[in-house]
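Key result, reporting period 2: structure in, sequence out.
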């Protein structure tokens, strides 16, 4: 399956990180991002719970083992993101994964998705502040 990822995203970069840096990456909660997890010859749909530039948390009905490498496709409105990830922990149908390989183009698409998410939050917060200021100054 890694060959499949390589065909879709020809130039890959490593995102290896130390364990102390893993949890410093901001994660965004998502509820509407679907994707596909592939392992060996099996591909099953998944639902992402949170996403960061270094990994993600997802719901998946398949079975895998801790430390396995899986192929993941995140289906965003701006296009799909393909990567190879390592299963870091598993609990029932939920697993936490760290991105091991992602192409430059997919890495940029993921980064832009996260930045857009934070921009929307900032815009909503500014709109709330503007509303509060306008109602207080009346």
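The corresponding designed sequence is given below.
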């Amino acid at each position: 399956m890694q060959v499949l990822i390589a065909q879709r995203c020809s130039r890959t970069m490593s995102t290896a990180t130390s364990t102390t840096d893993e949890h410093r990456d901001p994660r965004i909660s998502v509820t509407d991002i679907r994707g596909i997890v592939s392992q060996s010859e099996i591909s099953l749909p998944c639902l992402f719970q949170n996403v960061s530039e270094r990994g993600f948390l997802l719901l998946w009905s398949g079975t895998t083992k801790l430390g396995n490498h899986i192929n993941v496709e995140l289906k965003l409105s701006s296009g799909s993101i393909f990567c190879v990830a390592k299963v870091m922990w598993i609990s029932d149908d939920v697993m936490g994964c760290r991105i091991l390989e992602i192409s430059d183009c997919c890495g940029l698409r993921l980064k832009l998705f996260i930045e857009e998410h934070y921009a929307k939050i900032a815009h909503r917060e500014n709109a709330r502040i503007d509303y509060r200021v306008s109602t207080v100054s009346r």
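Confidence is low (pLDDT under 50) at residues 1-22. The chain is about 30% helix and 40% strand. This case is discussed further under Risks and Mitigation.
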